[in-house]
Specification:
The chain has 241 residues and is an alpha/beta fold. The protein is 37% helix and 18% strand. The chain contains seven helices and ten strands.
């Protein structure tokens, strides 16, 4: 039943997404949030948010900074606050989900190209100036959720010397009230295999711990490390050095 509902849900998105070019930003955000909530309902993934939600619900642009475990992270976050995500360029080539990511405005980055990094920083600035929040995963890859990898500081340049607020978020998944790596999208795992694994459980809970909002420090390296320390203290991580 889950598989059928998921297929119908994705087909519904493919039908609606072409209209994104003619609807307002507010309507688009509501549609993205509703779609994410319905997806999680189909997958039987419950979301619990802890911490002060004032900035999360703000009408101003802010930079959300999160640890990264799974492709599911994007939909968990979108279910509580639709944002623009920065994702690796190879996500754009994923069947169906890659096209959906393009249509909802994901910013794709080729980290190995300096010129592309500069472009992405400018795109992040543009969205923030339009009061559209942006989410980055500065670990640069996904983990099993036990560890918090070192943060890459490059994208923090987008808020250097600004008053844009940073919202660090610690994300973790549990199953039957215990740590679970069922959602972890790591190694050579394929997207379809990951979806199948997640659909085998009805007990997955995604926990979003909202940290204290921050401002940029005098270097992007210090800003990145400050965000990382906030997430490290909020989550149940093994520090990875």
């Amino acid at each position: 039943m889950k598989s059928l509902l998921l297929i119908l849900h994705v087909l519904g998105a493919l039908v609606r997404l072409p209209f994104f070019i003619v609807i307002s930003q507010g309507t688009r955000a509501l549609m993205i949030q509703s779609w994410a909530q319905q997806l999680l309902k189909i997958l039987k993934v419950k979301v619990i948010v802890a911490g002060d939600q004032e900035l999360l619900n703000s009408k101003h642009g802010f930079l959300m900074v999160s640890n990264h475990i799974s492709w599911l992270d994007i939909h968990v976050i979108n279910s509580v606050r639709p944002v623009t995500f920065v994702a690796k360029a190879d996500v754009a080539s994923w069947p169906i989900f890659g096209w959906i990511a393009k249509m909802i405005g994901t910013i794709f980055i080729k980290r190995e190209k300096l010129s592309d990094l500069k472009r992405v920083i400018q795109e992040i600035k543009w969205h923030l100036q339009k009061d559209q929040p942006v989410c980055i995963f500065p670990e640069g890859t996904s983990s099993d959720g036990r560890q918090l990898l070192q943060f890459r500081s490059n994208l923090f340049e987008a808020i250097a010397h600004s008053e844009i607020k940073i919202l660090p978020i610690a994300l973790r998944y549990q199953e039957n009230d215990r740590y679970s790596d069922r959602t972890a999208f790591i190694g050579d795992m394929g997207l379809i295999d990951s979806i199948k694994l997640i659909m085998q459980s009805d007990q997955i809970v995604a926990h979003l711990e909202l940290c204290e909002p921050q401002l940029a420090l005098d270097s992007r390296q210090k800003t990145a490390e400050s965000s990382r320390q906030a997430i490290l203290q909020a989550g149940s991580f093994q520090d990875y050095n």
